[in-house]
Design goal:
alpha+beta; four-stranded mixed β-sheet; transmembrane
């Protein structure tokens, strides 16, 4: 008996060694790809340095990121006013940039050094201050850290004015080298976690039930009967693509919140339009809805009472809301928390309210009616459509003092300055009326124009996580719920699941095209993250369905990708989210930089901080530590 047991043990060990050889080859491939990306980043470094110029170097004022120096030489006998208009600012007024004195005498022009933004093309306008006559106007996209000159002079005819733009010092390329660090950073992060051996230790951080951000639960199958699992009751495996989806959204969110290298496309759009930063929150909401469907279905199949589920939904929502209030009001570390300036809306608060409504609808809707595929749970669809009609009526019909009906603009200098105090229209008005100006976000993205950091676009507070936008976040989560119902109904019929995901993605994309007229600012309802507009929800839902198809095919169907390293943060989303907010200002997530006006240094710091959280989530996963509320 002892010899037989020994032979069986040796057989198991020999079988375990063979996959290790294959894994070593895969690790070597990942190592080589990461090393190649790093070498490319180093090789192209000289290309992002300042290129030498044949023109003499001119001493310029200290420049910040995304700024350039513009020296205006005025050979005319009258002062000039220089104004600018960002091409990114829709229907905005020209803003004064500076006044150029008149030339003292022929050959001795007046001049002034100005600072211009480099994120987007700008239109410069030069006017005579005497008669307010436009002398010249031209459009140009200035380069970061570049030095430029504009010469204004009379030609042979004194009534004709000539303006010419000259590049004195070539700008730097702040984009080329840095983006080679992205594949290198995450390849090395994946490589490091692959070399850490798994541990058999089991730790428990808390035994409370699941948080809506992480509704899918822990990866182990040995769970208590009362805890919802991440898989349909008829399946014995876990859908890793859902955790990978959540992890991708979470990692982008952490990177963006830490600064995103201070690049404009890693910041939220000032008003209409989309950047990378605007993708992640709706995707969180979407995948939360998918997880709700799978979790509640599994609980009901195990015989959990609906009343018990509703109690847990309410309690989770309250917990999540309170955590959110604490996170966005950090002054408690500096003294008593004052109600006077307490911000009430926020990301986790929006998630809490959305989870409460969608999860309650799903529990009660299962009670009412059972259908399949597209007509899954029609009473809940009826409720969501009713809520959307309420949003449309309030947005376009609610009278807002001193503002036109249905106004969707940013106020301030937008719309030619006609409605400076109408930021957000009905959405902003409802928040200020219900919550008060002191209890909403004081520095929204609409405050600062994209071209010059000192120019104020709007002056009144506005909260992008306000009350009215919560209706559309419910729609977003409900579309995610639909994805979960498809997974449940078709089980392992992969082709049908992917076909329906694609259909939903295409249909929602077509709706977005109609609502926006395929334009940024000219549609019926523009894409707007601050408003959480209907077109914003349909567009991001379309992207979410398509991304889910890709991940489902790669991770769960063909198993070509394990989902690493994004899978690990997706398994501990609430801990990573709360942790990255609490420890944001501490090492190794933040340190003093030698040059705070360098995109490269900010990008390095933000990537290191993000990779640290990936590594932490991997260690927690290996030790089976999961924070659940």
């Amino acid at each position: 008996m002892g010899r037989g047991e020994t032979r069986r043990r040796r057989h198991r060990e020999s079988r375990a060694e063979r996959p290790r050889e294959g894994r070593t080859a895969a690790e070597m491939a990942r190592f080589l790809s990461a090393a190649l990306a790093l070498v490319l980043a180093v090789l192209v470094a000289p290309l992002s340095a300042k290129l030498p110029s044949s023109r003499p170097h001119r001493k310029s004022p200290a420049l910040k990121m995304d700024e350039a120096t513009l020296t205006v030489h005025n050979e005319l006998q009258s002062e000039m006013m220089v104004s600018f208009l960002s091409d990114h600012c829709y229907q905005c007024m020209y803003q004064q940039l500076g006044v150029v004195p008149a030339g003292a005498e022929p050959g001795v022009p007046g001049k002034v050094d100005l600072t211009v933004g480099t994120q987007f093309p700008v239109t410069l306008q030069l006017n005579s201050t005497l008669v307010n006559l436009e002398l010249c106007r031209f459009q140009y996209h200035f380069g970061e850290q570049g030095n430029y000159s504009v010469w204004v002079k009379n030609l042979n005819d004194s009534s004709q004015v000539n303006c010419s733009l000259v590049t004195d010092t070539e700008p730097v390329n702040s984009y080329l080298r840095e983006f080679f660090f992205f594949p290198a950073a995450f390849s090395f992060c994946d490589l490091i976690v692959s070399f850490i051996p798994p541990t058999e230790q089991l730790f428990t951080l808390t035994t409370m039930t699941h948080l809506p951000l992480q509704e899918l639960g822990p990866p182990n199958r040995a769970v208590e009967p009362s805890v919802e699992t991440a898989v349909p009751a008829t399946s014995g495996r876990r859908l890793r693509s859902l955790d990978t989806f959540r992890g991708i959204a979470l990692i982008i969110m952490v990177f963006v919140n830490y600064g995103g290298g201070r690049y404009w496309f890693f910041r939220h759009e000032s008003w209409n339009g989309l950047t990378i930063a605007d993708l992640v929150f709706p995707w969180f909401v979407f995948i939360m809805g998918t997880s709700i469907a799978i979790s509640i279905n599994g609980a009901l199949r195990r015989g959990v009472r609906r009343s018990h589920l509703l109690k847990k939904v309410v309690w989770r929502s309250v917990q999540l809301f309170l955590i959110g209030v604490i996170l966005i009001n950090p002054n408690y570390c500096q003294g008593p928390l004052s109600w006077v300036s307490l911000r009430i809306p926020g990301v986790l608060q929006r998630l809490a309210f959305t989870y409460l409504v969608v999860a309650s609808l799903d529990v009660l809707d299962v009670w009412w009616y059972k259908a399949s595929d597209f007509l899954l749970y029609w009473p809940a669809w009826l409720c969501v459509i009713t809520l959307e009609i309420v949003w449309l009526c309030l947005t376009f019909l609610l009278p807002v003092p001193d503002c036109p009906s249905g106004y969707l603009g940013p106020g301030g200098i937008g719309d030619f300055g006609k409605y400076p105090n109408c930021t957000g229209g009905a959405a902003g008005f409802i928040d200020r009326w219900l919550l008060g100006e002191n209890h909403i976000y004081q520095t929204p993205s609409s405050r600062v124009t994209a071209v010059h950091n000192t120019e104020v676009c709007s002056t009144i507070p506005y909260d992008p996580e306000g009350v009215l936008g919560s209706i559309n976040s419910i729609l977003m989560a409900f579309l995610g719920l639909q994805a979960g119902k498809i997974l449940l109904h078709y089980k392992d019929l992969h082709s049908k699941i992917m076909a329906r995901f694609l259909i939903w993605g295409v249909v929602l994309g077509m709706i977005s095209a109609v609502l926006t007229k395929c334009s940024k600012d000219h549609g019926f309802i523009p894409i707007n993250k601050n408003l959480w507009s209907l077109s914003y929800v349909t567009t991001l839902s379309s992207f979410a369905f398509i991304l889910l198809v890709v991940l489902y095919y790669l991770v769960d169907v063909n198993k070509w990708w394990s989902g690493a390293p994004f899978f690990y943060p997706g398994m501990n989303s609430i801990l990573v989210y709360v942790g990255h907010e609490v420890f944001e200002e501490y090492f190794p997530f933040r340190w003093r930089m030698s040059n705070s006006q360098s995109h490269a240094e900010h990008l390095t710091q933000n990537l290191v901080a993000t990779c640290v959280w990936v590594f932490i989530s991997f260690v927690l996963y290996k030790n089976k530590i999961f924070w659940k509320i």
